[in-house]
Amino acid sequence: MRAVVYRGPGLVELSDVPQPHIAEATDAIVRVTHAGICGTDLHVVRGDFPGMVPGNVVGHEFVGEVVELGRAVQRIRMGDAVMSSDFTACGLCRWCDRAEHWQCGQRAFFGTGTAFGPLLSGAQAEYVRVPHADRTLGVLPAGCSPESALLMGDNLATGWVAVERAALEAGERLVVIGGGAVGQLTALAAQTAGAGLVVVVEPHEGRRAFARSQGSIAAHPDEALALVRKLTDGDGADVVVEAVGGNAPLDLAMALVRARGRVVSVGAHASETWGFAVGRAFREELSLSFAIGDGIRLRRKLTGLVTGGAIDPTVVIDARGRLEDAPALYGLLATQQRLKAVMTP
Predict the structure, then answer these.
(1) Residues contacting residue 293 through CB under 8 Å, at least 6 positions apart
(2) Taking the complete model, does pTM exceed 0.85, yes or no?
């Protein structure tokens, strides 16, 4: 089959690879109809995380049709149109019982090598093997487009979990650092959840313009501190969501939050250390947390919001193509000429 594979730092190519097969009784094989390119994929392909070797199939966002099932799969049926989380979970352990699926001991993250668990081939391909299919997959509901379902598996789930983890209250003032797909969907999630105002901090003018078109205020990072202080009577934001990854965005988040405010980081971090301002955090009673989107836990909630018309995640998609277009699409996303790309194998 054809698949997009990692060839080296910054390089992907379309290649012929073996078609996946059932390896465990709980597996499903899905024929991919839609595959997304995510900001995390850009990190992976750049070499920001260890564990990728040439030939690994990339990608973790997908929608498709079930074409083969292991004998132990009970909920998912042959021929089902399905959506997926970007990682797997067993559904049986104590972590899954608490709906904390990312901590599952059998977690595997599609298309990221061994950076976040055991190797699991990615979904930017014609077919993908899905472990623990009954938990990892969900049936595509009526009224939900494949592109919406694809975004619910990661980008929208990440944006929503940021708002959820921040315990955002109606009327509060929220800042999002980063105007990529996750940042923009975080802003829309915050609006849906009742934020009084949302500011998107982003250096790229095109992405700032997009944020404005979707109801947010937008600012360049150099202007953000003055603007946020002006909008909050000098206090700072109630909530700051860091949606880029890296130490500098975390520093900016800490600068923008008010005393007793909350910072939530959902960006992908490669660095193992960061200089945290413990003294200020103590004096001002700041809260800092990190969160990873859980498309398994949030699937029902996000489906309701999307099919009910409360939020349309597909507004961030501005590039579409086939698998053979992957190298060009990766280039457009890496240079911020596009916001979100979806491929139809």
Answers:
(1) 86, 154, 155, 156, 157, 158, 159, 160, 161, 266
(2) yes
